[in-house]
Amino acid sequence: MKAWTWRRGGRLEPRGWDGKEGIEIPTAGEGELLVRVHAASLNPIDWKTMDGAHDWLLRMRWPRVPCFDFSGEVVKVGGAGAGGRWKEGDRVFGMIRGLPQLGRGALAEYMVVDEDVCAACPPSFSHVDCASLPLVAITALKAFRACRLQERSQDHPRVLVAGGAGGVGTVAIQIVRNMMGAEVVATASPGRKTTLCEELGARVVNYHEEWVKKLEEEGCSFDVVLDCVGDAKRCARLLKEGGSLCSIVAGGTQDALLTWLDDARVDPRSITMGVEVVLRSSWGGQLVEFFSGAAGLRSLCRRRGGSFFHVIGAGDGELMGVLAEAMGRGQVKPVIDSVFSFEDALAAFAKSREGHAGGKIVVEIRK
């Protein structure tokens, strides 16, 4: 089959094109689905992983196929799963549970996924639409749950989304406004990104100005702050007494890393020798949080009687079900910056690295 792969320290390479040998179609085992991929979306973690972001934590097998987010059609139900929830021909979408590997990354014609990370594609949404949402929606839902925000809340909380025009930001605005009844303020660059956030229902402050000072002068404070761009330290000043700050970029915590290892069901044999022992120790956790900045951020939040959290998304069937229902009710819609062909995946990655996309970048694998 055709796929894009990479090796440690290398660049993406096409397999199955221009006379190059393709890779074998993977085989689905017990509890797994073989999916014919129609679309995959890019997230910054895709190219950060390629640049070695996880090399300290896990021992990888090479080559690997990139991309966490997929939407496609079930080709085969593995093991004795016939007669279960999924059947051949079902349209499914989701985020893989662990890290992309050969046969388990979405930038390929076929991939194997755990059946319990999938949700059924809502009928009125295309595969491109569906592929754009899983990782960002799972991350936003995990963040708001960590901050104790509830769906259909009657409290009408005030929420700040720092980085409102990115993949997580655009979905977070919709989730917290339409599903949790919040008043939302977002930071964004002027122009199309501001317009995008306003269309989603957020009040926007100019990211390139002294926006923290501006909000302080207005007397604005927030029950919850979601930091999508690494502004957590500045954002802490805007917390209400007892509020919660969650970052998906800054301040990686011991709890977030251990939760991800458990949620992703990482094979202990693939964890770099000694790392898990350090992560699960009290002194190791303190060391991680000192160097990540989490300790300092937690201290800033505590001064306001608040809490600090860091979350990492992983494939999650329950949260995918929440997302699919919200899409069906019109509470969450895809926000897509651009769509690239399978052959132009390198251009899609180049655009993602630029960091200027408003919404998601999607690669359409099968039309």
TrEMBL record:
<dbReference type="InterPro" id="IPR020843">
    <property type="entry name" value="ER"/>
</dbReference>
<dbReference type="InterPro" id="IPR013154">
    <property type="entry name" value="ADH-like_N"/>
</dbReference>
<dbReference type="Pfam" id="PF13602">
    <property type="entry name" value="ADH_zinc_N_2"/>
</dbReference>
<dbReference type="Pfam" id="PF08240">
    <property type="entry name" value="ADH_N"/>
</dbReference>
<dbReference type="InterPro" id="IPR050700">
    <property type="entry name" value="YIM1/Zinc_Alcohol_DH_Fams"/>
</dbReference>
<protein>
    <recommendedName>
        <fullName>Enoyl reductase (ER) domain-containing protein</fullName>
    </recommendedName>
</protein>
<feature type="domain" description="Enoyl reductase (ER)">
    <location>
        <begin position="10"/>
        <end position="363"/>
    </location>
</feature>
<dbReference type="InterPro" id="IPR036291">
    <property type="entry name" value="NAD(P)-bd_dom_sf"/>
</dbReference>
<dbReference type="GO" id="GO:0016491">
    <property type="term" value="F:oxidoreductase activity"/>
</dbReference>
<dbReference type="GO" id="GO:0005739">
    <property type="term" value="C:mitochondrion"/>
</dbReference>
<dbReference type="InterPro" id="IPR011032">
    <property type="entry name" value="GroES-like_sf"/>
</dbReference>
